[in-house]
């Protein structure tokens, strides 16, 4: 029979995990970003998207809406990606249309004009815009970029935003970067 954990043993395990994550500091990133909507305190979706963005080498996570998302679901990966906050869709649009935005937007939303993931060609410097869990991508953003959707085996109206993010980022990484590590910057 296994003895119960003592106080402090969890901390040792946590430190080991943090040490592994610190190894991410020296890694280069791919030149792309992910934009996600935050519903405020208790929103776990942004943290899950953060984990996927870090796993597939994004250089930025752009949070639209409340800055008070639940960072526990990011499992400390939020320390290894540049996170920028936009208080509103209007602020995000202004940045996206300015000279400061170095990315080509792609909207993840199933519409009459969207292309199935299997046939979609991602731009190298992608800005993946993910929908709000409750209302999707606002019309002010929806029609400003090419749209991609994920086919499902059964007619499910939509996927969880964090799940869709992981699938799309994996396919982007495979298609654009051949599944390789980011290029090392000199």
Automatic annotation (TrEMBL):
Gene3D superfamilies: 3.40.1280.10
GO MF entry, a single one: RNA methyltransferase activity
Superkingdom classification of source: Bacteria
EC code: 2.1.1.207
The entry's keywords: Methyltransferase, Transferase
Ranges where the tRNA/rRNA methyltransferase SpoU type domain occurs: 46-170
Pfam families: SpoU_methylase (PF00588)
Gene Ontology biological process terms in this record: methylation; RNA processing
Protein name as annotated: tRNA (Cytidine(34)-2'-O)-methyltransferase
Organism listed in the record: Candidatus Thermoflexus japonica
